[in-house]
Task: structure prediction
Amino acid sequence: MIVKSIKAENFRNLTELDIEPSEGVNIIYGENAQGKTNLLELIWLCTGFKSFRGARDSELVKFGEEFSKTAVEFYDTRRIQKAELIIVKKRKAILNGVEQSSPSALSSEFRAVVFSPSHLSLIKDGPGERRRFLDLALCQLSRSYTSALFSYNRILIQRSRLLKDIYRYPALEDTLDIWDEKLSEFAAFIVDKRIKYIELLNEYATSIYSGLSGEKETMEVSYYQGTEETVTEPQDFVKLLKESRKEDILSGATSFGPHRDDIRVNIDGRAARVFGSQGQQRSAAISLKLSEAEIIKKLSGQSPVILLDDVLSELDINRQDYILESLGDRQVFITCCDPYSILRSCSGKTFYVEGGRISEKNRAEIVIKPPKPCNDE
Result:
């Protein structure tokens, strides 16, 4: 997967963007709050998913303007394609001149992996962040998973409404059997896909984390359901839902299922979330995201575009070098305030961002100056 050109009008603070990135490493540098992350966000939106910064569609339009229009041409190992996004209040996606039913239709055509400082939440925060990471990764790989997840969540909402009604009208309890069977069918499919993905994730993450730590520490990733034995069959889900029915009616919520599951990340046999240092947690999160890229390549045959938003600044030189070397055969976009540590390790193109204007810089033009602390935008 190679981005060939990027054009944008009225996207965030970017001014009339028109660039042709390198097929290798692209360094996007400049002071804080100038628009570096906006460029990565624009590329990410071509996956069909929402902003990785949590922004609403309307917030992507430049202040004072009525619309935003972006166009990204990319090569997917088969042909050149063009993804366009037009945003007024909501996004409208156009692929190769054909309007799509929804932006999510782009997910099977353009693939990317993004890592930003906020992704430390993968390790530090609760199970919801890790489930979101897992679901997003699988949705890029499988339309059937996307469909099953949508159906599961829809039925889950309906079951929760029924649980609340049963508390007031007990006669409705008999209707739960129908919803439990439907919910269990999709739950089994989702969990099966997740477990197989986690097996691959653990394989890659173990190796990547070992490299990042100089083979001094080990990392392990596993799927956790909160049960003694792994539950993957529809009839087993039905059984557990019946066993927890009284509790569910009292709470008005479904207490068991893939919406409650978690990913366990251990470093040297201990929970990274609880016992890991800041550096260990950062390395673990990076390992998960780099593993995601490896899995996409393995299962789809296409290397995703890698988007690294101020990831390297907090890492020592050895870890920076390891990451850059491991990404050598992919197209990478790296934002930073200080480009010098990256310039020493890789070739490619360098872009300077100031006030929303992005201009390509010859490396000889970059004046070396003492590095300064870089805060997240």
About this structure: Residues 318 and 332 are 19 Å apart (CA to CA). The first strand starts at residue 2 and ends at 9.
